[in-house]
Amino acid sequence: MDLIDDPQPGQNTPEYTVSEISGAVKRTLEGEFGRIRVRGEVGRVFRAGSGHLYYDVKDDRNVLACTTWKGQVAQLSVKPEEGLEVIVTGRLTAFGAQSKYNLNVEEVTVAGQGALMALLEKRKKQLAAEGLFDASRKKKLPFLPGIIGVVTSPQGAVIRDILHRLRDRFPRKVLIWPVAVQGANCAPEVARAIAGFNRLTPGGALPRPDLLIVARGGGSVEDLWGFNEEIVARAAAASQIPLISAVGHETDTTLIDYVADMRAPTPTAAAELAVPVRMELIAWAEAMGGRLSRAAASGVRQRQQRLADLSRALPRKESLLDTARQRFDRTADRLDGALTAGVQRRRLHLSEVAGSLRPGLLNRMIAAHRNAFQARARALRPAQLQTRLTAEREALTRLERRLSIAANAQQQRRATALAGAERMLATLGYQATLERGYAVVRSGTDLVTTRAEASGHAALEIEFADGRLEVATTGARPTRKTKPEDPPGGQGSLF
């Protein structure tokens, strides 16, 4: 320690600058305590925008300020939470700018298994309240996944047990994402692995799995604590790929077990849940094939028996033709006689008709028809036809002239009536009223007939006799009121 050894006359106590005394206190704290462990309850917790973590560790009488720098936060196996009893390990130091001392914490551990279980229960209630444990959001596992993604440690018996069981039951393609299964890196690595599998492209060069297995062997509560972290539970809940949790033994329970779509008591059981037994499927398929063959054969036999039963109820084919054959034979026997009799009847009729036909008679009939034709031909002369045609044409011309005169007269009468109606419309219409100094007030297509209606519109359009004018309402009162005797008009308000 550097001291100013220049006391005032009559004083033996040395003097220090503020920086000197702050440095002396800091060196004394760091040298006296060095690396220490402190047990207490976590109080206020604050994470700054810079990433540094500030919090208090307290007992029933005192409070110790603690700081974990941004680079140290990721190394903490347990994140401090308010109300959690912990043991913090770090170095005691002083901050001279504010005359304060605090503990730079490098490691946080939970003080006892009871505190761990209390923290676990607190997180479980929080996630359950958010609906992450609801059965309605759990996805159905695929019956036979093509690719299975496994999140576990690449060393140890867990991955070997899973691969061996998959090979025995139904060999599938397996993608392994190696992670730490305990310690400070466990939770972030498992969360990144689940999210990473979900970001893969289905059918890509590295295809996305159809099913995920998160597995770890048994261990203590502290060993399995990484799977109780909130980031792991949320990553499992956000997974679009169905997920099986196989963490620990059957009696071990972690938060990921509640969020996962299916919980397996052991990693081996997870492999059994993931795929069916191939030989059992083959046997089942063969059994179904046998049942199908037997059902088809039975159906054919039943239809054959049914056809035979129906055929016995039908008459013999010989009996179906007997009646028709007999009718044909009887008709054939009568055919010769019928043909002979028919020819004879037609010959007799021809003789009767031909007996009355003589050449002289035919000649006389032809002469009579020729004379009648010639008489009618003489009665038809072109001059007579021309005369009649001329008379009919003159009559048609007269009718056309009369029709034209009548149409013009009727058109003139209607034009006169229309002109009178137009003069009456001009006299009775509201335009004539506008010529006398009135106006029509509109708002858009609506007519405004009262002052109350006008005050409710921001802009009005006023039509005068010589055109229209748009005005904005200002709320001012009109200079005069509408006289009772002013005509309202048929098309708007006149004033």
Automatic annotation (TrEMBL):
EC number(s) per entry: 3.1.11.6
Write down the species.
Seohaeicola zhoushanensis
Protein name (database record):
Exodeoxyribonuclease 7 large subunit
The UniProt record lists the OB-fold nucleic acid binding domain at: 16-108
Query: Which ranges carry the Exonuclease VII large subunit C-terminal domain?
Result: 132-471
Alphabetical GO biological process terms:
DNA catabolic process
* UniProt record similarity statement: Belongs to the XseA family.
Localized where? Cytoplasm
Q: Quick one: where's region Disordered?
A: 471-495
- Task performed by this protein: Bidirectionally degrades single-stranded DNA into large acid-insoluble oligonucleotides, which are then degraded further into small acid-soluble oligonucleotides.
Q: Fetch the InterPro entries from UniProt.
A: Exonuc_VII_L, Exonuc_VII_lsu_C, OB-fold_nuc-bd_dom
